[in-house]
Amino acid sequence: MILKGIAELLNSRQQIVITVHTNPDGDAIGSALAFGQFLQKLDHDVHIIAPNHFPEFLAWLPGADEILVFEQDVKGSRAVLAAATLVFCLDYNALHRSGSLQDDLFKLTVPRILIDHHREPELDAFLWAYSDTRVSSTAELIYEFIAYYDFDKYIDNAIAQALFTGIMTDTGSFSYAINQAETLEIAAKLVRSGLDAVWVHQQVYDTFSENRLRLLGHAISNCMLVFEEFSTAIIQLSKEDLQKFHFQIGDTEGIVNYPLQMKNIKMAVLITEKKDTIRFSFRSKGSFSVHEVAKAYFNGGGHANAAGGSLKTDMSSAVKQLIDVLPEYKAILDSSN
Fold first, then answer.
1. pTM, rounded to two decimals
2. 179 and 244 assigned to the same domain
């Protein structure tokens, strides 16, 4: 029903803008590029706007160089939005998650359509919401949208690369969020279409700069706190830490996953200091839901095993607040598997 309703809007040529969340990741960029290229094949005029810069390790994706970055080109981005007849919001569940774009999106009078897999979508903000929290990534939903038309007809290598990047990065290289067989079946279909999955993996994960690798070593060696009694590990990176290693957007990607490699750690948290905001990245393994922690105490949320949040405070206060709430979840962490 929802796909049919969205498809009906696409029966006539549209001026389409695709938007993603602030600090866009592999799923956001991959989904946007795959969807944009598909819509162009349907003869629509398509532009993609990201609120701010995305990581350099995604810049190789076909079409990435054409993405408008709102904070870099406000005038150009607003001109594109002003001409839009249809706006898609990909990989975020509420307009405020679009960061610097949110005010412009709120003012739009044209239909907004959500395609996303995060919990508790802000349904009132959208004409249609194609939302499914069971899937691993928004890229899976874009695959389903293309398949609704005809996957074999519209798939090409650029779309396959973008979809695989979205699924691969939002599952931590297929290490979590793959409870549905469909996730692996989609990956297999992409490979059968001619995708070189090994090459794509190398472009994303084997392109570290020396500074990024040294930052990872510093984070684990000098900035990690382990609380065995709460099955939790915390990594804290201050502004000084980031500056010391000449931080670039994307350099902290994946750091939060490393503590989960320890046998008895069930929750890992990366805390980073950026300007006047402290950001939290939560990961868990097993049945423990970090979404609940992020939502209850850190103005955030996300998925059961991957969530984010933020506080307007200083680093020491942020770390203390996290440590103070750990006893509340001890029993759940102990019993999770």
1. 0.93
2. no
